[in-house]
Amino acid sequence: MTRQTRIRLFSLLVLLGVLAGVLATPDTENAYAAPCCSACDYRESACLWGTLYPECGGDPGCCFNKVANCWNWCNSGC
Q1: Who's near 70: CB < 8 A, 6+ residues apart?
Q2: How far is 60 from 65, CA to CA, in rounded Å?
Q3: Does the reported pTM lie above 0.70?
């Protein structure tokens, strides 16, 4: 076996090792960082001020409905 063949085989082995490592990593497709619930409060306040969701025009009911989904998945521990 020539030196060039050994180098190619070693390179192939390293490539396969890297590929196996990439394929073995856990799937992070569904991983996300939930915002703090205080961010939801800020979003509602910004809506009431008219800077976020201007279509609500500061209506508390409309703003609550726009931001309600935020409270369903926010992180209350921060």
Answers
A1: 35, 39, 40, 43
A2: 9
A3: no
